Amino acid sequence: MKMFQNTITLRSYPRGFHLITAEVLQALPQLKEIQTGICQVFIQHTSASLTINENADPTVRTDFKMYFDKVVPEEDPDYKHDDEGADDMPAHLKSALLDISLTIPITRGRLALGIWQGIYLCEHRNQGGRRNLVITAWGI
């Protein structure tokens, strides 16, 4: 059994959905040493999230942002938690609706993503800042 782990800090992204597959792969070059295994990608934040989805057409990212902004609007008078501004509680809710951790199979030293799949950073804050990811891979 082999196990590798690396923590990376992503640059600051604007609010929206951003493909980060390349950054994840660059962070763990040892992935090539695993023939069959699992890769977990975990974000250490409560106002951003991760997902896997369409990696080719950028309108998917635009539509994701539009949808989540409609479903979880800012300025809702029922929100109590607004310590960091109008996007504070909506960012936490959007993160809870998506996920903070992804589990991806490893096959023959590569992530077993489908041809049209990519890893997204879902930035829910207007000024989210740099985001930390812990990337762990294990297998044989």
Automatic annotation (TrEMBL):
Q: Report the transmembrane regions from the record.
A: none
What InterPro entries is this protein classified in? UPF0047_YjbQ-like, YjbQ-like_sf
A Pfam family recorded for this sequence: YjbQ
Q: Which domain of life is it from?
A: Bacteria
Family membership noted in the UniProt record = Belongs to the UPF0047 family.
Q: What is this protein called?
A: Secondary thiamine-phosphate synthase enzyme
